[in-house]
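quick one, 117 residues, struct below
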Amino acid sequence: MPTSGPKTPEYRKYGLLQFEIAGKAYELTIFQNLSSMRSPIYRDYLFLPFTDLTNGENTYGGGRYIDIRIPKGDTMIIDFNQAYNPYCAYTTGYSCPIPPEENYLDLAVEAGIMLKK
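---
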């Protein structure tokens, strides 16, 4: 996955999340970090990078992230209240993953961490 800096962490596509908001269908690809898969602490962590209509206005322009644990069944809850800005929103020197184009939501997700105005 490309990043905002020189580091390029490796992710694999874990799955495709399909859901509806206000009657409209959406899809987001969720990822798993390959190095985290080898860690007993983080092996069940998934990474959901996304962009939406709040980026650059109320949230970081490069998108936001949600960390989710692998569920026991085939249903996953996306809690947008857990969305956070990457370190790149606050300081320089980090290589923050850039959400893929397929993870653009054509709506304003006004939940999670927002930028102060």
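Residues 11-103 form one domain.
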